[in-house]
Amino acid sequence: MDTNSVIYLVIGLTALVLAIIVAALIVKAARKKGGRPEATGASTPSQAVPPDVSSEAASDETGAGSAVESAESVGSVASQSGSSQAASPESASPQAAASAAPQLQTPESSTSRLIRLRARLSHSANPFGKALFTILSKNHLTDSDWEDVEDTLLLADVGADASSRLVEQLKSDVRVQGETEANAVRDMLKARLLTIVDAGMDRRLYAELPENELPDARKPSVIIMVGVNGTGKTTTAGKLARFFVAEGKSVMMAAADTFRAAAADQLETWGNRVGVKVVRSDKDGADPASVAFEAAHTAQEQQRDVLIVDTAGRLQNKANLMQELGKIRRVIEKTAKVDEVLLVLDATTGQNGMAQAKVFAEAIGITGIVLTKLDGSARGGIVISVQRELGVPVKLVGLGEGPDDLTIFDPATFVDGILALN
What we know:
17 helices; Rossmann fold; Four Helix Bundle (Hemerythrin (Met), subunit A); eight-stranded mixed sheet; alpha/beta; about 10% strand
């Protein structure tokens, strides 16, 4: 082999080695680049979140608090719920999923709230019972003492006729039994108060009746809330919804107070806290009866247990009130029977609220009374006088501003509370 051939051979071998080295470097670099997703967790194109899902999640994070207030009807609320469920768990981040599913509150049970409210009633109504007990525990009651008893009853909003009757009954009891011992007098007073409060009245809400007492299996049980603005009517409707949710019932509410723009928003805020849908109009000043009709139809279609209808409390005159409330009831009963018409009264107004109560009673025919604000400056005797004036029972009482400060009225608990001396 000559010199030139050797040179060519060396050059060829060198080029081959260089080519092999370059190829190895390229393969190594390619492998390193291809393995990077597993090391860092970056998304591949096939794993990317669709633009509509990511934007929806962002919208949920920024607008979850106001979603309910902007809903115009059950249909719009349902469509929002359906769109939020369209995103699969795999495509949405845990943070977005958490923000899209707001935490619902758990209302207090009826048993628990009755115990708590009994203690509060005892505290607020204590002066009434204590004053009576102090007078009646004297060894010898004079005419002046009996006048003091009657004055105490009047100051407690028992009412003139009821106060006079109760005093005469107590006089007879003391004279016949000849008792002056404190506990005996207290027992006599308790018995008379239970009689005058009328413990035998049926105070149960239709929606709470056991199935064997229901005339049929129809749904929903419709409750219309009436009362002047300022009594806590809309708030009470929201609290009543919580009460039924705590009892395991499915509830819907209707914002038929279309004259007050804030009423529907307020009702939706209450409903949003416990997952209760609200039917409302998409414009202020709409026909309240049409809202009530839509709600009744939707509640029946969805087989809700209870429908609570909030109505307006500020109208120009009695004729307008009767016309509107009567129309609401008529259109509802084209679809579902109205079981309850609850009149919401502010207990602190005392006897001054009786005239208003009578107007509503005449306008629509009430089945029960809800006394709000029975704590504070309210006097327990209003329970007695309002029942005697309207001839219907107090069914619910509110004893505070908390969301669960509403409970079924129990006469024995009420009397025990106002006679508690400790």
